[in-house]
């Protein structure tokens, strides 16, 4: 999740004094790249995914599932993988493994980007499986790399949930529930955690509605919160309103950034093509969040949502009370508030949230940019003066309303023609559903867009299916010239609907209908399969595939992927979230009180692991024959 500079990070009190410096030079760095590479043309259609894993220790004797905190050692071992570990591979094929926020997390990316031709798309699942195998081979006997979105018992207080166990209430997060030891040990991560808290002026506040089952108390008042004792200052916030009744309360960045997802990045032929892809993929972000929903449990409870989005959003919400609209402007001098260079202002959203504006210079894009976005005036003026168009200017000036969170003392004065560190500092901590990515200064790769909403899926069959489907949709967008512009405010609304429990069956989504920029509300089944006034995403993909020279076997595999997504979208198969919820509620030890006990958690995770390995079928979740297919690869 972003740039890992080495060095000494500044505490918030020092970092905030330098925030204007980072913005001024960050935008200069962007301009240097833009001037040099805006006319770059003809980059190949290449893409790649990022998969995030949790390393879980499954102890069959104790019947416990705990998070392994061995990220450092595991990554060290993974960095030594070589071609002899993968039959037929050359060095360029070797996947790479990266650290993530949680010290129990690993991220993988393919060694070589994928193309968009049939043979290339068929490489994806095998590549993902190789990454999983390489990881698994470097773990201890009971450790398993799991592609699950949220660890259901992260932050419980009745038993340990990490291996080894640690005490909460660390210096970085002050959390009642999460020890700082779950944070990646690279200084960037504890600093990010502490600086978000300090800038905000309190701990982050995450309240997820609890799933009210038949025996869940009403109102639900979480018994694991220390309501009546406050031995520590950090206990007070929960008592004084931070923790809401009928909600699962969480108070640390790790509850959000400790979730896993799958992101896909596409290289475009030119900056204009990147802007077009950015815009046309934006309305798809909620739809793919809903069909990939996989995170129904937090801190030992079933939630009334199926997806992680709002949780991460709140987990990194560094806005001050004034910016959040919870305090009057006169309060701008509260702890953590702005430095003297920045005016206090309201900010509608957290740094992690849905994208706020389209990027194409195009009348329809302009009309559909219906949300008034906050901009940094200096950046806006500077980009205008440099000749950047209004739309791109607004996008960048909007990203630059944030403060840089982590600044390294060794990295303050940089050459703005060769470095993009200051630009990336802001860019990589604006976690939106889409990210528009300029080429690196070296120009070794082109303009790119990243599709970021999807939740990670249990199996690589599913992960391949969803990433290949989005890739094929980029082809549909470019080849068929579709026009899916719709008001940004309605996409925002869709992002909320996408997270609702069982959104597939209960929600409708705004989507563009016909030629005029009018919208209607559709079910996911209608959007994916088509209806009288919308051709449907999957039929469009099939129509595109008809134009491609594909071997029968390639087409058959692609059809398996598209069929899986079709079945998820219309409810013939469950989402990962629905499956997990059903497993918990069907467990003999479940008391219909929303609690995911240690025993249930162990059985759930060991069952999910057996399904992934193809040792157990998962009717209702995966197509019949998945197990045999998995074992045959
Ligand atoms: N794990 C985060 C998520 O679930 C994303 C972190 C990243 O940007 O890599 O969205
Ligand atoms: Mg990541």
From TrEMBL:
InterPro entries for the chain: GCS, Gln_synth/guanido_kin_cat_dom
A single MF term (Gene Ontology): glutamate-cysteine ligase activity
Pathway(s) the chain acts in: Sulfur metabolism; glutathione biosynthesis; glutathione from L-cysteine and L-glutamate: step 1/2
Reactions that this protein is recorded to catalyse: L-cysteine + L-glutamate + ATP = gamma-L-glutamyl-L-cysteine + ADP + phosphate + H(+)
Gene3D superfamilies attached to this UniProt entry: 1.10.8.960, 3.30.590.50
Record-linked SUPFAM superfamilies: Glutamine synthetase/guanido kinase
Top enzyme class: ligase
Record keywords: ATP-binding, Glutathione biosynthesis, Ligase, Nucleotide-binding
UniProt superkingdom: Eukaryota
Cellular component, GO, one term: glutamate-cysteine ligase complex
EC number: 6.3.2.2
Region (Disordered): 328-347
Gene Ontology BP terms: glutathione biosynthetic process
Protein family per UniProt: Belongs to the glutamate--cysteine ligase type 3 family.
Protein name: Glutamate--cysteine ligase
Protein source organism: Malassezia equina
């Amino acid at each position: 999740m972003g740039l890992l500079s080495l060095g000494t990070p500044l505490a918030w009190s020092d970092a905030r004094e330098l925030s204007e410096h980072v913005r001024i030079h960050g935008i200069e760095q962007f301009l240097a790249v833009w001037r040099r590479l805006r006319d770059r043309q003809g980059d190949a259609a290449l893409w790649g995914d990022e998969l995030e894993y949790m390393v879980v220790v499954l102890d069959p004797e104790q019947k416990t599932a705990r998070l392994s905190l061995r990220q450092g050692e595991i990554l060290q071992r993974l960095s030594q993988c070589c071609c002899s570990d993968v039959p037929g591979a050359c060095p360029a094929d070797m996947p790479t493994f990266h650290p993530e926020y949680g010290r129990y997390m690993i991220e993988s990316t393919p060694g070589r980007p994928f193309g968009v031709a049939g043979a290339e798309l068929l490489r994806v699942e095998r590549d993902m499986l190789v990454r999983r195998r390489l990881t698994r081979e470097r773990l201890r006997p009971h450790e398993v790399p799991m592609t699950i979105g949220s660890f259901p018992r992260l932050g419980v207080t009745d038993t340990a949930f990490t291996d080894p166990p640690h005490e909460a209430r660390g210096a970085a997060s002050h959390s009642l529930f999460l020890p700082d030891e779950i944070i990646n040990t690279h200084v960037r991560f504890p600093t990010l955690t502490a600086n978000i808290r300090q800038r905000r002026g309190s701990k982050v506040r995450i309240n997820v509605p609890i799933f009210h089952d038949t025996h869940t108390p009403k109102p639900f008042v979480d018994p694991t919160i220390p309501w009546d004792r406050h031995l520590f200052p950090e206990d007070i916030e929960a008592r004084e309103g931070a923790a809401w009744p009928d909600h699962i309360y969480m108070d640390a960045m790790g509850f959000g950034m400790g979730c896993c997802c799958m992101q896909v990045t596409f290289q475009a032929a030119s900056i204009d093509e990147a802007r077009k892809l950015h815009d046309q993929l934006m309305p798809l972000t909620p739809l793919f969040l809903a069909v990939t929903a996989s995170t129904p449990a937090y801190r030992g409870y079933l939630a009334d949502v199926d997806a992680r989005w709002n949780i991460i959003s709140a987990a990194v919400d560094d806005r001050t009370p004034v910016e959040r609209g919870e305090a009057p402007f006169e309060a701008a001098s509260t702890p953590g508030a702005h430095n003297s260079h920045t005016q206090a202002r309201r900010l509608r959203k957290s740094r992690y949230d849905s994208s706020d504006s389209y990027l194409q210079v195009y009348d329809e894009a302009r009309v559909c940019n219906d949300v008034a976005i906050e901009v940094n005036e200096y950046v806006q003026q500077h980009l205008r003066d440099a000749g950047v168009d209004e739309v791109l200017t607004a996008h960048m000036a909007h990203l630059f309303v944030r403060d840089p969170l982590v600044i390294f003392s060794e990295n303050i004065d940089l050459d703005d023609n060769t470095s993009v560190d200051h630009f990336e500092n802001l860019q990589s901590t604006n976690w939106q559903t889409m990210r528009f990515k300029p080429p690196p200064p070296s120009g070794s790769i082109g303009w790119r867009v990243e599709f970021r909403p999807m939740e990670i899926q249990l199996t690589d069959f599913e992960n391949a299916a969803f990433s290949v489907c989005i890739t094929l949709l980029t082809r549909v967008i470019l080849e068929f010239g579709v026009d899916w512009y719709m008001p940004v405010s309605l996409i925002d609304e869709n992002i909320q609907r996408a997270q609702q429990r069982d959104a597939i069956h209960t929600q409708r989504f705004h989507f563009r209908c016909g030629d005029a920029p009018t919208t209607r509300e559709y079910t996911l089944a209608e959007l994916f399969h088509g209806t009288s006034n919308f051709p449907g995403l999957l039929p469009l993909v099939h129509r595109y595939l008809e134009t491609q020279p594909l071997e029968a076997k390639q087409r058959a595999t692609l059809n398996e992927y598209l069929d899986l997504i079709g079945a998820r979208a219309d409810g013939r198969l469950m989402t990962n979230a629905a499956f997990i919820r059903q497993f918990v509620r069907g467990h003999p030890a479940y008391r219909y009180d929303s609690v995911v006990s240690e025993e249930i958690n162990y059985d759930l995770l060991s069952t999910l692991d057996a399904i992934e390995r193809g040792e157990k079928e998962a009717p209702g979740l995966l197509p019949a024959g998945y197990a045999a297919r998995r074992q045959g690869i």
